């Protein structure tokens, strides 16, 4: 009975706090991307939101992914507004959630363009 009570309390705490068995890892990565490559990163992240929407217990993760999508859209807008830059170097905070054999990864809202590239001037700090 004692083991059942401990298990029930643990399950109740998980339900109350909204915790899951997902392990979160964060890593800073630097990518050089064109407009098209950045678009596909953003697009895949939007697709991830649709997949996560099937699990209502993951609302906080969905919000985290959505904030990353919003930040990626700003980067796309920047490249659209500055066609003289064909590539940007972006420092991303990549977030990965793992649950056993399953995992998903996305770019958080903490990303910064560090350098821009034009075919005429080459690379320069941004």
Description:
- This is DUF4878 domain-containing protein.
- There is one protein chain.
- This protein is α+β, with helices and mostly antiparallel strands.
- It has one domain (22-125).
- The protein has helices at 2-17, 35-52, 59-81, and strands spanning 23-33, 87-99, 102-118, 122-125.
- Strand 3 and strand 4 (122-125) form a beta hairpin.
- Helix 2 (35-52) packs antiparallel against helix 3 (59-81).
- The radius of gyration is 19 Å and the shape is elongated.
- Residues 1-19 have low confidence and may be disordered.
Key terms:
disordered N terminus; 126 residues; four-stranded antiparallel β-sheet; 36% strand; alpha+beta; elongated; DUF4878 domain-containing protein; 3 helices
Please write out the topology.
Blueprint: H1 2-17, E1 23-33, H2 35-52, H3 59-81, E2 87-99, E3 102-118, E4 122-125
Antiparallel strand pairs: 1-2, 2-3, 3-4
Protein name: DUF4878 domain-containing protein
Strand order of the largest sheet: 1-2-3-4
Helix and strand string, N-terminal first? Answer: HEHHEEE
Helical amount among residues, as a percent range? 40-55%
The helix-and-strand class reads alpha+beta
Q: Stretches where pLDDT falls below 50 for ≥5 residues?
A: 1-19
Residues in β-strands, percent: 35-45%
How would you state the average pLDDT, rounded?
Answer: 85
**Rg of Cα set:** 19 Å
Number of domains: 1
Distance between the termini: 63 Å
Largest sheet: 4 strands, antiparallel
Q: If helices are DSSP runs of H or I spanning 4 or more residues, what is the number of helices? A: 3
| Shape, per Cα inertia axes | elongated
What is the strand tally?
A: 4
Protein name: DUF4878 domain-containing protein
């Amino acid at each position: 009975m004692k083991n059942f009570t401990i298990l029930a309390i643990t399950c109740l705490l998980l339900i109350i706090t909204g915790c899951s068995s997902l392990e979160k890892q964060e890593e800073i990565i630097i990518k050089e991307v064109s407009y098209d490559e950045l678009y596909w990163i953003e697009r895949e992240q939007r697709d991830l939101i649709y997949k996560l929407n099937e699990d209502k217990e993951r609302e906080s993760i969905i919000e985290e992914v959505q904030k990353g999508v919003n930040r990626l859209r700003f980067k796309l807008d920047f490249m659209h507004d500055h066609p003289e830059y064909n590539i940007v170097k972006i420092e991303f905070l990549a977030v990965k959630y793992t649950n056993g054999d399953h995992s998903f990864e996305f770019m958080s809202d903490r990303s910064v363009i560090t350098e821009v590239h034009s075919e005429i001037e080459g690379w320069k700090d941004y």
